Amino acid sequence: MKCLFPVAGYGTRFLPATKAQPKEMLPILTKPLIQYGVEEALEAGMKNIAFVTGRGKRAIEDHFDVTYELEDQISGTSKEGQLDSIRELIDQCTFSYTRQTHMRGLGDAILTGETLIGDQPFGVILADDLCVGEPDGVMLQMVRVYEKYRCSVVAVEEVPVAEVDKYGIISGLQLDAHHIRVERMVEKPAPQDAPSNLAVIGRYILTPDIFEILRNTLPGKNGEVQLTDALQTQAKEGRVIAYRFKGRRFDCGNVEGFVAATNFFFNP
Fold it and tell me: Which residues, including other chains, have CB under 8 Å from residue 265's CB and lie 6 or more apart?
């Protein structure tokens, strides 16, 4: 029922555009990246949306709220319908927020969100990764995987070997064409050290024991608390499934992926 969005990062690859606005609010056509992610969560039945934010992220809170002055101005005009998609999210979802006061990695961001999640399985969406599911959204696909295996689920796709040092990389027992029981996870390995070229992308379903594991996970790569290291602890017990999702992912954390996503949605 809950989906966590870690949105505290600075978005330095998009400076100066992100100097005074969150990178998650950068638009793909007329919708910000974060809205695509929340729509994907809602499609998967996750109506409780939790944000781990940071300084300078007020625009995200304002986006998922009613703007009375604007709505009054465009009421009855042809532009009113342009707010339908965000009104639907505001009506159907509840939104909660907490702050990550120090940037200590994705693992720390998720641990910060424990107060909003509680003791239940939950989704995690990284808005930088804009996913187009075929035919269903990626998070909905992953909910079905969770319902079958009842353990943590990570979305994976093949990446060029030269790019494995940008991702968490997995290997394990191939169960079928789309499911792998993870045995090993390595955060940003050098190409010669990578166990495969299957990269974890920004979609997860995590079981609540991940919080206690994160509390006891020492800082790893780059001095940050890595979610990959915590998932490796679960994987040692056979409790992580990697899922080759059906669809397409755009890495909107860099300019090339952002432009590709814009072109795709303009000419689908």
Answer: 28, 29
Cα–Cα distance for residue pair 268/15, rounded to 1 Å: 28
175 and 263 in contact (C-beta within 8 Å)? no
267 CB-near residues (< 8 Å, 6+ apart): none
Task: Show the CA angle centred on residue 138, arms to residues 258 and 121, nearest 5°.
Answer: 120
DSSP label of 208: T
Which residues, including other chains, have CB under 8 Å from residue 189's CB and lie 6 or more apart? 164, 165, 169, 195
Residues linked to residue 4 through DSSP beta bridges, in sequence order? 50, 124
Give the model confidence (pLDDT) of 93-152 as tens digits: 999 999 988 878 899 999 999 999 999 999 999 999 999 998 899 999 999 999 999 999
Q: How distant, in Å, are the alpha carbons of 167, 188, 223, 232 from that of 104?
A: 17, 16, 8, 19
Of 165, 171, 156, whose CA–CA distance to 221 is shortest? 165
Q: DSSP strand E in 70-215: where?
A: 94-99, 122-125, 129-133, 152-158, 168-174, 179-187, 198-206
Pairwise CA distance, residues 229 & 219, whole Å: 9
Q: What's the topology of domain 2-266?
A: Spore Coat Polysaccharide Biosynthesis Protein SpsA; Chain A (3.90.550)
Q: Is the pTM of this model over 0.90?
A: yes
Helices (H), 175-239: 210-215, 227-235
Q: Are 136 and 44 in contact (CB under 8 A)?
A: no
**Which pair of tokens denotes residue 75?**
């009421």
What is the per-residue pLDDT for 57?
87
Domain boundaries in the chain? 2-266
